[in-house]
Structure formats: C-alpha cells, structure tokens
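Researcher: I'm comparing several assemblies side by side, and this is the next one on my list. It has 828 residues spread over two chains. Same procedure as the others: predict the full complex and return the structure.
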Amino acid sequence: MTETIDKEAVPLLQVRGLTKYFGSFAANNAIDLTIAPGEIHALLGENGAGKSTLVKMLFGVLQPSAGEIVWTGKPQTVTSPGHARSLGIGMVFQHFSLFEALTVAENIALSLDPKIPLTKIAEEAAALSRAYGLPLDPSSHVADLSVGERQRIEIVRALLQNPKLIILDEPTSVLTPQEADKLFETLFKLKAEGRSVLYISHRLEEVQRICDRATVLRHGKVTGACDPRQETPASLARMMVGSEVAAVHRADANALGATLVDVRRLNVPARTPFAVTLKDVSLRVRAGEVLAIAGVAGNGQGELFDALSGEYPVADAETIRMRDKPVGRLGINGRRMLGAGFVPEERHGHAAVSDMSLSDNLLLSRSQSDRTAFLAGGFASVIRHDTIRSAAKRICDMMDVRKSGDDPAAASLSGGNLQKFIIGRELDRQPSILIVNQPTWGVDAGAASRIRQALIDLARSGSAVVVISQDLDEIFEVATNIAVISEGRLSQPFPAGELTLEKIGLLMGGIHDSTHGGETAHAH
Amino acid sequence: MIEAILLTIITAATPLVIAAIGELVTERAGVLNLGVEGMMIMGAVCAFAGSYLTGSPLLGVLCGIMGGALFSLLFGFLTLTLVTNQVATGLALTILGLGLSGQIGESFVGIPGVKLQPIVFPVLSDIPFVGPLLFKQDITFYLSIALIIGVNWFLFKSRTGLKMRAIGDNHGSAHALGINVIRTRYLAVMFGGACAGLAGAQLSLVYTPQWVENMSAGRGWIALALVVFASWRPWRVFAGGYIFGAVGILQLHAQAFGIGVPSQFLSMLPYAVTIVVLIIISHNRRTTLINTPASLGKPFVPDR
C-alpha cells in the first residue's frame, strides 16, 4: 500500500500493522492508517469489516495483538479510554450512555473532574456549543432532547477535553439529514482549527462530501486508501464490498414456476424521522427463484422487510400479493397461514426471545400457523410440549445447531447457531415463500454457508425466496436474480449472471438509470 | 385550640416526613425497600429499650437510629450482595420486623416510657402562637427539617448526590463511568434504615412514650406512598407528610365533633391520594422520566 500523505506534515496518528485476534479470528489484520493534522479521515467499511475493533484499539478499550500506534511521532500503548483522552483523543460513540433524568451539564459533569463546579461546566459547555454551532442548553434534561441533540452532548463532552483527534462512530446513522448537515458544519470548523477527525461510516455520499482521505476496510484488512473525492461511488463500493466476487452462482438455472410473491408499486411513508420512505417498489418472485436484494445499510431494507412480512401491514391490500391472494392488510400470522415464512434481521428480541427456551421460541412463532400440531384442546389451547420439543430437536438436527443441553435458552446459543435454528424453524414448515433479512449477519463462515445452502435448496424445491443482504458475496452465491435498493427505491431485477460489479456499485450508490421499472406506469 | 391541633399535626407528621425522606434517598439510588414499616418498628423498640435501660431518651434516639440502620443492612446484604428480589425481600423485612420487635419488646409492655423533652429556644419560643409550635419541639422535629434541607442539598447540589441520581437513573452507565454502584446503594439503604429507625424512635419516645406491639400502625406504608406522592422530591415529601399527618389528626377531631365521615374513609385518604398522584404522573411522560429513578427495583450485577 503506498501512502501519499503530505510529506511536510508530521502525521498526527500513524498505525502500523495493527492486528487484533479474537481467538483465531483476526478482526483486524495488519492495519495501516495515517491521519494528518487537520484532516477529516474516513474509515469506510461494511458492518463487520473491523472498523469498531480498530477504533476501540485507538481509544484504549481493546489492546492490539500486534502492531503499533504512533501518536504525534511517538509510539504509544493506549491503556484505557482515560489515557486516550489525556493524549488528546476524543470519541463519540454510536450508542450514547447518557442519563435521561439528568441535565446536560450534570451528564457532562459526571465524566469530568469532580472539583470543577457544575456552574463552570455549564458555562463552558454553553460557550463551546455556541462556538461550534451545536445549539445546546446545559440546563435542559436529556429526556427532552432529540437524538441529534444527545449526540451534541457527546461531542461537546469530547471537545471539553480539547482533543487533537475526534473519532465519530457512524454519527449520522441516528441523525435526520438536516441534523447531519449541521454536524458536517461543526466538523469543518474543527478541521479549520487544525483538529483531525476520524469519521467512521458506510455512507459513500457523506464520505465523498466531507472527507479528505479514506481508508477502506474489508474483512479486517485495508483494501484501499484514497481521496474519496477522486473516486466514484462505484469504485468506493467495490473497495468496500470486494472485487473478488467469485463465480459461485448456483448450479442450475432451474425452470421457474408460477409467481408466488408479487409486489406492485408499493409506497410506504417513513414511520419515524430516521426511517426510509419506500417509493414505488415493485418485485416479483417465482417458484424456484431466489431474489436477492442488495444495498448499502439504511436504504430501506428494514422497511421493505416490515412491509413484506406484515409486521407493519400496508395501506392497500392489493399492492402485495402472495400465492395470488392480496395480503397487504394481513399481519404476520395471516401471511404465515398462506405458507409464507419470515426471518427478521435482529436475532435477539425480534426473531427470538432470548431468555426463553428454543421450544418456547418455536411455539411463539408458529402457534397460529401450526396450531393443530402444537396446541391441543381447541379453545383451551393446551401446549403439547412433547410435540414441540421433538420439533425443536428435529430442527436442531436438520440445521446442525450446536447447543448445550436439550432445550437451552435462546440466549445461550452463539449467534450463528441461533440463526441456524431460526432459519430452520421456518424451513421446517417447508414454506412456499421465505423472506429473510440479513440471513448471515454476524454469523461465522461455517454457519453462513450452511444457511445459504439451505436457502438455495428451498428454492430448488419450488419455493420463492427473497434474501435481503448487504453482503455481495452472499448475494452472488445464492441469487437467481438481483435487485438493488437505494434510498427506498428498488431497481429492476437482473439475472445474477449478467450483473457486473460496476453496475451493482452504481445502483448501490443511488444512480438510477433508465432501467427503473420493468413494468411501465399506469398500473395503479 | 388551633394551636393544640397544629401541635398534634406536627407530632403526627414528623415520623412520616423522616421515614419518607430516608426512603426517598434509598429509592433515588434505585433501590426499592418496602421494609420501611419493619425498620420503623425495630427503631421504635430499640429506642424504647435504649432509653429505658440507660434512662436517657437521647441515647434512646441513637439506639433507634442504629437499630433501623442495622436492620436495613440485612436488606442491603440480601438484595445488593445476593441480588434477591427487592419487593419480596422488602415485604419479608416488614414481617420480620413486626415479629422480632414484638419479641424484643415483650418485657417492656405496660412500662411507662420516658418522654423525649423539647428543646426550648429562649426568646423565640416566647413568640405567641409560632413560638411553641416551632421553637419548643423535641429534637426529632428539628432533625426532620434538617433532613429535608440536607437531602435536598445533597441530591441536587453535591457531586456525590449527582452520582447517586445517576445510579438511580441508569446503573449500567453509572458503573461504566466508574461509579461504585453497590457501595453507594448500601449507603443509601442504610440511610433509609437510619431514618426509619429515627421515625420509630419518635413514635415510642414522643408520640406515645411507651412500647406497644405494632405501634407503627401502618405509618411505614404511608411513608412509602409519600415518596411516590412527592414524585421523589424532598420538599414535596415535607408538604405531603404534613398533609397526610393532618388528615390523620383531623379525622380524630372530626369524630369528636360527630361529623359523619366514616373514619375508614379518612384513613384510606393518603393511599387514595397516592393513587391519584400516580395516575397523574404516569400521564406525563416527561415528569416520569425526570423524577422517577428509572432503575428503581432493578437488580444490578456488574460485568465480570
């Protein structure tokens, strides 16, 4: 990797060969990173690329397994967050740890020297927030503040320590576009003062807009260091998601059968200020087909899944049809009864109740669709524990779920094994339609390949499968057809064999060419 | 006449205020101790025993405080160290306290106690009307005022109080900031116990200077209701204590005058008012968030 940093400036931070092992897994593998004074440096990468691990080492939360951190020309061992702060490194975390019942000033005071009087802290915080365009009233209670304002508290708290480098972890993921614009102004101000910013993101547009340099991570390795303004969204996306997409297409382009899922011109308004509006989404999945939906996180994947699964029914029943029936107004169970199965993105608290056993989780999701098998006594709904337990065992055997004990709590399983169970829970019903969001997110390689194989096998047996994923490798591995979601719009589907990486990158970057909408308008 | 009534109201309100302000601190740190009644009665019997055996009611007050604090330590050990359920443990503490105090106090039944003498402020106590009310009271009254002022200052002005409120709001984040959650909670629980003990001492040395089994007569429960009624603010505890105290006294006078309100109705008023206040609080999400300790009653186990 050739570094082309300004030679005249001593780098503020230089990271050489930084490596972190968790067990035998290298979360970070020989990372090199150089940050010059007064630059906004992007750390780009998909979820799980190793960005957080790297940053935690820089901030002293984790200790590296190998490599060195050179701070203003001197090698340093950053022992703790406190040490990092004293060196001049500030950090704004993605998830804030604020006390809602306390005021802004009180929250800041808790992390500062107790000798500084509260009134002085309030004054300094107010002055700082004015100077950096971060409007904040120190006497207001956190409970009354928006997420954007809460983030400002964290930024002001970091600025009070007068840092040379501020690390922001996915700061805009919780912000509205307007709030994000305000944040960028602040970052430019920090830059003008000669402070550096390490800006972690997977949003290409932002990075191109505000960052001077970018380091791209993928699978724990640096895959590129560049000036993002010189790059195209496609080239950045390729660095992020990899260019070695192998030709692992599913073997047979088997004959596709009847249309099982038919979505026409689905429009869903955003439910919260942070949600994405679905615009004119149309898709069609036939028996035997795996339709993969690619896209950078936060472009409407969750909203699309909610609409397809019935977690939030849509306004017009006819916009979503499954097996030739309008299902738009049906909830999850109504759609399950029609033979559909769903796997949401979050394993804990959404797909499974962590503290309950596997068999209880099985009953919870299938109590309606498998009522006759799992519940006895008609109205009385007596739980048939034996049947459910044996079904849970069958699922575990089928998917090779490794667990301790016969029927352990969901929480005791590793992420990959729980995900195998959750996927197996749906497959066990042999659904004619399966809709999965991020099937292998945070899952180890072995479990991931098992899950992908199961999805392909299900399609081969004549079901329609929709896989929403951010992992392009996965998408090319399982997909018959690929569509790309960007800012709530879905591209037309392309046969997996015909789609080039260049093209997918452009679509992910939000460039919609004339190909949008295979089915022409007026069909409303 | 009015002066006499006001004097009895002060005497009736003082134990409520003291017990409630102690429980307020405990709950602000995020611990729900339903054992106030039990700690109070233990304080009462210890105070009576102390004053009877030493002949000094002041030493008796000290014994009451210590008795309540030591008894609350049992609750602290169970809920904070062994992480038992706070509701169940608190109820058990009350039942245990009522039984144990009866056992300890068996030989004191029927013995006349020594009344705690008022502290008379010269000159000030001669002011007509106000003087006897405010400047000729026993030490527990002055302590109740000092406790309200002190706790208010501690919670909202001192850094330690800020840390305690932080623990009550979110013990996980507080722990992450390096605040010692368990130790602070132990201290808060013992403060609550000491206050309940002091309130009990007031009962057996001032209110009715003798030992009677179950003499706390539900005042611990009123104190608990009072904390919620006050939405965890010290000065509202003070105001509420006097309202609840006045209701109790006026009920007696109403009976004496033959006013036809059933006494049961008046006895339940404090609880009915508390329920109404709870409903009002729950309607306003903001007040709830800001005043209710969010981690109240939740067990805390630090990460290993």
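Model: For your comparison table: Chain B has 13 helices and two strands.
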